[in-house]
Amino acid sequence: MSEWNKVKLEEILQVKKGEYITKKEAKEGIYPVILGGKEPAYYINKFNHTGKAIVISRSGASAGYVSFWNEPIFVTDGFLIEPKDNVNFEFLYYILKSKQRELHNTQKGAAIPHVTPALIGSIDGLLPDILIQQNIVSILSRYDTLIENYQKQIKLLEEAAQRLYKEWFVDLRFPGHENTKIVDGVPEDWEKKTINDICTHISSGSTPSRRNKSYWENGTIKWIKTKELLDGWIFDTEEYITDDGLKNSSTKIYPVNSILMAIYASPTLGRLGILASECCCNQAALCLIANEQIVSWQWLYWKLFELRDEFNSIARGAGQQNISGIVVKNKEVLVPTRQVIDAFTNIANPIFQKIKKTSYQIHLLTEARDRLLPKLMSGEITV
């Protein structure tokens, strides 16, 4: 360990603030807006940073979250982090990722949690010489390269499924549309129903009391927070609750293929997740279980995805924007015939299953990298 020096993060990094912007102030485009959380909030037609970027989310539930980018982005409610002399850019990112829990724990503020440059800089770290930094980056970047390649595969699959949905159910160019009679702008035999009509179950979750340790310690029941909803499959959760926590709260265990939708707080409002295993969730998420006699869960997923902008536009709340479960339940949608639903599902389901398989590979690679990360960053494993 003689080659490693104990430092404060402020000694090896500098912090720059993002530029304030709202969705209403920008035009839609291709550049991701980094607002907070693990995914871009939305996409606009301009950027304020290009090249490598380390971003730490400044406020909200994901305050302190560290992300790495190597494309033009627009950083708004976040900090751009840059290395000082003799610090490898990617190594700095891995130091910060190894301090992810500590960064989250520096959050201040009861109403809206936030982190500050001073809090970030006060965290302790270890810095080896530049050669060791490069060797560590070489090892960890292999995992990240594989993860990135899998993410690109998933994106292409998602785009294919979304194009199919739009062509059939937005543009109404479904199989047989040429011979289908249109009545008042609606294909014959298609019906308007509420989301409640096409689901067998809709409810929000709950948070067991944090004051009672028996609800959380050694928990084995997966419990999802809305920041974990990333428009894809959910294999694991950051937190688990116990049987006592389940019994003494209004949260419920939801089955595989249930769809969760975030109903609180931009930028997560409207984000979706598909359960790959049984899970519970907090009160900021709504669980929807498709009535398979009417629609498939695959069709319901893309319908909810289509409605996201509308739900965001009618969200209310002074502190945190939200949309009530009642509004979601009563939302009227156009439901195709069973024949068209089945035809869509037959094409969409293999895509979903391929996405699921690839997402699980990402899950395994991420777990392996995250187990290795602290050992490399502490010098426990020498390189």
Quick synopsis:
The protein is an alpha+beta fold and about 375 residues long. The protein contains nine helices and 21 strands. A hairpin with a 2-residue loop joins strand 10 (about 180-185) and strand 11.
Low-confidence stretches: none
Report strand %. 15-25%
What's the overall geometry? globular
Order of helices and strands: EEEEEEEEHHHEHEEEEEEEHEEEEHHHEH
Mean pLDDT figure? 93
Largest sheet: 5 strands, mixed
What distinguishing features does this structure have?
383 residues; alpha+beta; five-stranded mixed sheet; four-stranded antiparallel sheet; 34% helix
Structure explained in plain terms:
With 383 residues, this protein is α+β, with helices and mostly antiparallel strands. It has nine helices and 21 strands. The strands form seven sheets. Strands 13-20-17-18-15 form a five-stranded mixed sheet. Strands 2-8-5-6 form a four-stranded antiparallel sheet, with helices on one face. The protein has a three-stranded mixed sheet with strand order 4-3-7, with no helix packed on it. Strand 10 and strand 11 (186-187) form a beta hairpin. The longest helix has 41 residues, at 130-170. The mean pLDDT is 93.
List the helices and strands and how they pair.
Elements (H helix, E strand, L loop, with lengths): L4 E4 L4 E5 L10 E7 L7 E3 L7 E6 L8 E5 L3 E2 L2 E6 L5 H10 L1 H6 L11 H5 L2 E4 L2 H41 L11 E2 L2 E2 L3 E4 L4 E6 L16 E4 L7 E3 L4 E3 L1 H5 L11 E4 L9 E4 L4 E2 L3 E6 L6 H10 L1 H6 L11 H6 L1 E4 L2 H40 L6
Parallel strand pairs: 3-7, 14-19, 15-18
Antiparallel strand pairs: 1-9, 2-8, 3-4, 5-6, 5-8, 10-11, 12-21, 13-20, 14-16, 17-18, 17-20
Helix pairs in contact: 1-9, 4-9
